[in-house]
Amino acid sequence: TQVFHGDKLVKEVDIENPAKEQVISGLDYYTPYTVKTHLTYNLGENNEENTETSTQDFQLEYKKIEIKDIDSVELYGKENDRYRRY
């Protein structure tokens, strides 16, 4: 699987099990991407292989969570990969 931004190849990921969910990290929000998946399979006759290409456009959007009805507020900070309440 290849991820493109325009004509530029951004990421390439090998998918060993297409039944599992795939995570591709390091992509930017609000950037148009195209994912191209190449599938090669054997039809069982004379060791012929066919290749199919699937293309899908997508864009990551930042999701904002708004919390209402707040009972209390506490301040936390991160120190040495652990969170600490102040």
UniProtKB/TrEMBL annotation:
Gene Ontology terms, MF aspect: metalloendopeptidase activity; zinc ion binding
Pfam families the record matches: Peptidase_M26_N
Cellular-component GO terms for this entry: membrane
Every Peptidase M26 N-terminal domain range: 26-84
Protein name: Peptidase M26 N-terminal domain-containing protein
Organism: Streptococcus pneumoniae
